[in-house]
Design brief:
Length: about 160
Amino acid sequence: MPPPPPPPEYADKHMPDGYWGNPDVLEEGKAIFTGAQNIDVNCASCHGKDGKPVKAGARDFRQGEHMAKFSDAQWFWRISEGIKGTKMKAWKSKLSEEAIWKVIVFEASFGLPGQEYSVAEKKWVPAGTAKSAEEVASEPVKGEATEEAPTEEAPK
């Protein structure tokens, strides 16, 4: 079953340009995730330093197939607001939006290494291959003819 979509206030939030695959962003995300940057935030205390959970119920970030079910906006929403009915609490009061995106880059490195979320294609793709909305819109729909069939000219 697919995860619920993010609420409207999060639906249009997407990874800032230049974050996917950026080694500096990845390192900052790691520092935040492990509590090295802010002692009040330590994702690794539940999710493990390598994405393998150390507490029951924590998401295993090494499971790429499961992680790929979520868009970047969904991950942002879950970290910002927490997950009701679980021990995952809201982090928006402790982390800036920029910091949350950096954490997402780091978390994705466990189960989705070398990938980025393509907003236009609505799926995870190899890093550097995400298409723009314009490219996706100009692609023919499967099963649709790409060129008009030639027509006979009327006799003169």
